[in-house]
Automatic annotation (TrEMBL):
It comes from the Bacteria. This is NAD-dependent dehydratase. It comes from Bradyrhizobium macuxiense. Residues 4-246 form the NAD-dependent epimerase/dehydratase domain. SUPFAM superfamilies: NAD(P)-binding Rossmann-fold domains. PANTHER family: EPIMERASE-RELATED. Keywords: NAD.
Length: 325
């Protein structure tokens, strides 16, 4: 039976990845500071602990793994990474996890690891025009990410590739572009725009107001979780080390995102634009490289993913309301 280690298995992408690997017949060990908050883990073995502790990283790599996915990080949406309040924690926590896990895996002769970098590592100066952002992989340098979160990702992707060169590892690096879906953070300050907009629309009355950070003309693309897992697994099992974008090319403004969600909800809402953390003006995945190297790119529409996500978030809100009554 093939074996996999998923670091960050209590989180959004890690939790879904565990389910996918179980469906493929893997024996899976999940590791996180916490159990998944929304569903029972399907991991065969789930270890709660802190990957900033090097001894803990050595303990959880005490057996042979065919695949290792490193998804643990101190992360969140614009409301978490662009306020500046968490910069030191984000850099220290995530870099320490990556340094520890690489060291532990290399010493245990793990063949290779998957690492989840982010589109936040791309330079701000190429993402100023909301209609024409440039996120081609070769536009990364000269580096100028707009957040410390992005700088840590850039450092860590270089670290994984340095282990390939110096220690003969087969690490793989993906640059995720805003992943969304059911069982993602949807409240509390770390949620990203798709979940935040679904929550706000679900909580609004018909013809009610929905608060949006900025003027809503900033652009993004959003990738549904199932597509993200497909890209992740294909890259991990390929001969291509990356870094490569794993994202959607269906770019929308945040105003269009609100329109889509309110249409799904069957509500008319009034957008109230307020100041808030904004991040880059425009961002879109560039999928030429992943198409060339893996012969694959995502195909599901933003709307189809939002339908499932809205339905799940609406259900969370209703069950919280019932529990509070
Ligand atoms: P998430 O926050 O839901 O999951 C990350 C998990 O890491 C959390 O469950 C957290 O508890 C765990 N973790 C943090 N510090 C830890 C520690 N010291 N020890 C053990 N576990 C620890 O985030 P996610 O959306 O699932 O993202 C997974 C990865 O993908 C992260 O590396 C993130 O930076 C990257 N990424 C995600 C997106 C996205 O849109 N979701 C975009 C770009 C990159
Ligand atoms: N989160 C959030 N909540 N964003 C909002 C809201 C809101 O209520 N209203 C408007 N926005 C706007 C933000 O101001 C930002 O301009 C845009 O929606 C997208 O915000 P996020 O989805 O939170 O983050 P991001 O796209 O800037 O960055 C995310 O994607 C990266 C990868 O592409 C983050 O999740 C990063 O952690 C991730 O690496």
């Amino acid at each position: 039976m093939p074996t996999a280690l998923v670091c960050g298995a209590g989180g959004f992408i890690g939790g879904h990845l565990v389910k996918r690997l179980k469906r493929e017949g893997f024996w899976v060990r999940g590791v996180d500071l916490k159990f998944p908050p929304f569903a029972e883990t399907e991991a065969d073995d789930f270890v709660v602990g802190d990957l900033r502790d090097q001894n803990f990283c050595r303990q959880i790599t005490d057996r042979k793994f065919d695949e290792v996915y490193q998804l643990a990080a101190d992360m969140g949406g614009a409301g978490y990474i662009f306020t500046g309040e968490h910069d030191a924690d984000v850099m220290h926590n995530s870099a320490t996890i990556n340094l520890n896990m690489l060291d532990a895996c290399q010493k245990r002769n793990v063949r290779g690891m998957f690492y989840s970098s982010s589109a936040c590592m791309y330079p701000e100066h190429n993402q100023k025009d909301p209609d024409n952002p440039n996120c081609a992989e070769d536009s990364a340098y000269p580096a100028a990410p707009d957040s410390e979160y992005g700088w840590e990702k850039l450092f860590s992707e270089r670290l994984y590739l340095a282990y390939n060169r110096n220690h003969g590892m087969r690490n793989r690096v993906a640059r995720y572009h805003n992943i969304f879906g059911p069982e993602g953070t949807w409240e509390g300050g770390k949620e990203k725009a798709p979940a935040a907009v679904c929550r706000k629309v679900a909580q609004a009355s018909n013809h009610g107001e929905v608060e949006i950070w900025g003027d809503g003309t900033q652009t993004r693309s959003f990738l549904y979780i199932d597509e993200c897992l497909e890209g992740t697994i294909r890259l991990t099992r390929s001969e291509f080390e990356g870094p490569v974008n794993v994202g959607s090319e269906e770019m929308v403004t945040i105003n269009q995102l609100v329109d889509l969600v309110s249409d799904i909800a069957g509500k008319k809402v009034i957008k109230k634009h307020i100041p808030g953390p904004l991040g880059v003006r425009g961002r879109n995945s560039d999928n030429r490289l992943i198409g060339q190297k893996l012969g694959w790119k995502p195909s599901a529409t933003l709307r189809s993913g939002l339908e499932k996500t809205y339905e799940w978030i609406d259900r969370q809100i209703r069950s919280n309301t019932r529990a509070a009554a």
